[in-house]
Structures are given as C-alpha cells and as structure tokens.
Amino acid sequence: MTTSPTDSDGAPERGTLATILDVVRRRWLLIAGIVVACLALAVVRYATATESYEATASLTFGNASLTDAALQVSRGSGDPERDAATNVLVASSREVAEGVRRQLDTPTDADTLLSAVSVEAAPNANVIDVTASTDDAEYSARLANAFADQYIAFDRSSQIDAIQSAEDDLREQIDALPAGSAERETLEASLQRLTELRAVAGSGVEVISRASPPSSPSGATLRTELMLGLLIGLAIALTVTFLLESLDRRINTIQGFERGYRLPILATVPQVAFKRSRKGGDGRELEPYRILRSALDYVSVTRPANVLVVTSAVAGEGKTMVSVDLARAIALSGREVVLVELDLRRPTLGQRFGLAGGAGVTAALTGRAPVEELLTRPYEELPNLAVLPAGTIPPNPAELAASAAVTDLIGELSDGGETFVVIDSPPLNPVADTRALIGNPAVQAVLMVGRLGYTSRDQIARARETLDQHVVRPVGIVVTGIRDVARAGYGGSYESPGAAGDPAAAAGQPRRRTPR
C-alpha cells in the first residue's frame, strides 16, 4: 500500500501536495465560506465607496538656483534624495496650504486642504508630483495647481528674503566706506546685481505639467475589488484552515491510522455503509467486509486468526458494526461463525437482533445455562451464523472478562478451530475488559477499528502502548467513516442488480442501531 509521509504520532506531514489537497477537500466548506464573505465585503466596499477624482501637477526643481549662485550659498544638501524629501515636506507644509486657502478664497482650513493632497518625489528625477483627490474633478485640478503655484511662491519668497538680507548687509558695509574708494565701488556693483536678481527670484522651480480635470473617477473597479477580495479571502481561508488542522488532534487520513498503530489497513468502510447497515442494507454494504474476510484468510496462512477480538481505542468508532458485518461476510463464504458479544458494559447486539432482555454470555460464564441453548441464529438464510449476545449486564464485567470461564467459552465455541469466533469487545482505552481478553490464551488475533475524523492521535498512541504489552499481535486495522466512496473502494458502478449474491439481504435484516 502506498503511503504519504507522516509524522511520528500518526499525523500526516504537512507540505506534500496530496496532503494539502486532502485538507482542502475536507474543509472546503470553511474555505468557501470565508472566500464568499470576503467577496461580499468587496462588493459592499465598492458600492459604498465615494467617487474620487485625482488630478496631478508636476514641478521640477534644481539643486542650485541663480540666486543661490549669485549669493555664493547653497541651500541644497548635495544629496539629491534628501533635497527631494525636503521639497516634498515644503510643498505639503501648512504655510503652503495657507497660501492655497487664500488663493482659492475658500473657507476650508489648511489641515483639510492638506488631507486632500499628496506630494511625492519622482524617483531618479528632480521632479515632485502634487496630487489632489476630491469628489469634484474641477476642484481637484484647481487644488493641485494651487499647491504647485504656492510652492513656487514660497520658494520665490524664500529667495527674495535671502536677497533682502544680503542687500541690507551690503548697504551697511557701503555706508562705512569713504566715497570714491575702490572697495565701495565693488560693493555697490554687487548691490546692483542683487537688485537685478529680484526679477528672476524663484526661477529654480517650474511647473512642467499643470493638473487638468480628470474625465473619470479614480480608484479600483468592481473587477479589481473582487479580485482583491478573492485573494484576501483565499489567504485568510487557507491560513485559518491549516491553523485549525495543526490544532486538530483527530486522525483525518487513512495513512494516519496506519502510521499511528504501525499496522496495515485491511479494509476501509465508507460512511454510507453505516446507514445501510442500520437499515438492513441490500448486501452491498458487505463489500468492505468481503475484502476484510479475504485479508484475514491471507493472514491465517502464516498465523491462526480463527478467534478474533474486534476492538477500538474508544467508543463510537464502529467496532460493533464491523463485528456484525464481518461475521455475516464470513458466513456467506460457507464457514461456521459465532458472533460473541463480550462488551458486557454497553451491550447492543440484543437490541440489534431483537433479543433484548434475553440470556447470553453472562449466563454462560456463570454456568446458569448451557452455551448451545443461548445461541441464536438471526438469519434464516444463514444457518451457519450464530450470535451469542451479552445478556444481563453483570456487576463485575472486568472480572468476568479475565476469568477462566471465558477461555472455556471460547474453546467450546471455536470447536477446535472449526468455527470462526468473532468477539465484539469493549473499547481498549476506557476499561480493562479488553486488556484481559487479548491476554486470554484462547484469543488468536486482534482487529483494531478506527473512525476517520473521530479518533485522536493521543487515543491511538495510548491504545498502541496497550497492544505492545500483550503477546497477541493485532492483524491490522479497519478504518470506518470514509466519506469519499471512491477512496474506500466502494460504489455501485460494478454491482450486480439486486442482492442475489447475499442470502442474508434477500431474507431481510434484523433491525439495526447506530454502530458503536
């Protein structure tokens, strides 16, 4: 049997494609729900979003202006990126915003104006982009252009202030010198040049592209919002799915049981077989048990397996259903079979076969009635199948299970190996009864039952420890509760019409209860 990588405690390793697909298949409802919710939120976001129009004005600036050169100063840092960041801060400053408010003659305060504008420096270029975003296309263009204008005005004002300061300094020096001196004439020439520079102050910044009203609103389209919602939904869904998977201690793969018990899988029983077994079925629910019967025949070549204890780690895994339907499948092959209920704590075979309240195993073990009188044959068409229900619930089931009377009972029923004895026992972990049974010298083999998505890794580990302490080795595992019928090898595409091959089905089935 091909297995996927697994970890030491029976959980499938994460990361393989097969494991990922299996997790997605089992939790597809959760994934679909999260994705649909994110798509719905994307639609709501798009429907409730306010239309926004963006307009952009672009400005270029130099590292040194004519004024800076004339004044023999440098207002730049020498680092283009740092200068660009400085210009961005200036263009988005409150002082520039106040100038915009005055230019547009608007009652809107400077902070509100700034919140509608973003300023960014273009990479690898002495250019900054001023983008205004409002619900009015015309106003967006006006606002972006106003910020560009006021940035230029602020830059020009800064240069004029520098020129004025230089002029004042020169005048003080000129006044201190005698008329007609050469130094005075030089300073007067410099003063004249500063006066001329006033006319070109601010020429280091220019608008290279004025904003124009946009023809359509900006922002994501519905398709973009849906794609974004889909991607976010998938990311959240897969994260939640695999987080839950890592926290889930249940075994959710067939290979998990194989690895946890360190035993081969002899048969897999689909979920639909539970329902058919309860209702009586049409014989097709026995197909997994025919496979199991063949596997046991193969095992019996190398070791005796005619006295078989069927158990599970905990209750609810389907051990009673497996015991009943395995006995039916063996009987259909023509062999003599006795189904013995040694689950003396919570017996169900009496009700399953309409024998509730009758005598059974307890009476046989205490010597109140001979075994032959306690056996019942529930299927008219299968006279070779006998059932010995538990009967009265005893006050000391563990002691009865460990008594020598059980050895004698099994020996009498097996008839020297001529009769196949299937023993439905209690779960292995909760009580001591089954531990005593698998230590009984009359027991030849143990069959474990595990239910997909129900049994936990810890329960399997505990059951495995118990099995390792006994001489009788388990022959394998039957995995129940598989929802994927194809994976269980069970379906109707290769069935003969009706149930002609199953005398038990043709004769009608006793009333069933939920498997235990």
Rg estimate, integer Å: 44 Å
Query: What's the name of the CATH homologous superfamily of the largest domain?
Result: P-loop containing nucleotide triphosphate hydrolases
The helicity comes to: 40-55%
Sequence stretches where pLDDT stays below 50 over 5 or more residues: 1-15, 489-493, 496-508, 511-516
| pLDDT averaged over residues | 81
Q: How many β-strand runs?
A: 11
Give the strand line-up of the largest sheet.
5-11-10-6-9-7-8
Task: Count structural domains.
Answer: 3
CATH fold-type name of the largest domain: Rossmann fold
The best one-word shape is rod-shaped
For the largest beta-sheet, the strand count, sense and barrel status come to: 7 strands, parallel
Count of alpha and pi helical runs: 21
The separation of the N and C termini measures 28 Å
Secondary-structure-based class equals alpha/beta
CATH class of the largest domain: Alpha Beta
Taken as a percent bin, the fraction of beta residues is 5-15%
CATH architecture assignment of the largest domain? 3-Layer(aba) Sandwich
Write the layout of secondary structure elements.
Layout: H1 17-26, H2 28-48, E1 53-61, H3 66-71, H4 80-91, H5 94-104, H6 110-115, E2 117-121, E3 127-134, H7 137-175, H8 182-197, E4 205-209, H9 222-247, H10 254-261, E5 265-270, H11 271-279, H12 287-299, E6 307-312, H13 319-332, E7 337-341, H14 349-352, H15 361-365, H16 371-374, E8 385-388, H17 397-401, H18 404-414, E9 420-424, H19 433-438, E10 445-451, H20 457-468, E11 474-482, H21 503-507
Parallel strand pairs: 5-11, 6-9, 6-10, 7-8, 7-9, 10-11
Antiparallel strand pairs: 1-3, 1-4, 2-3
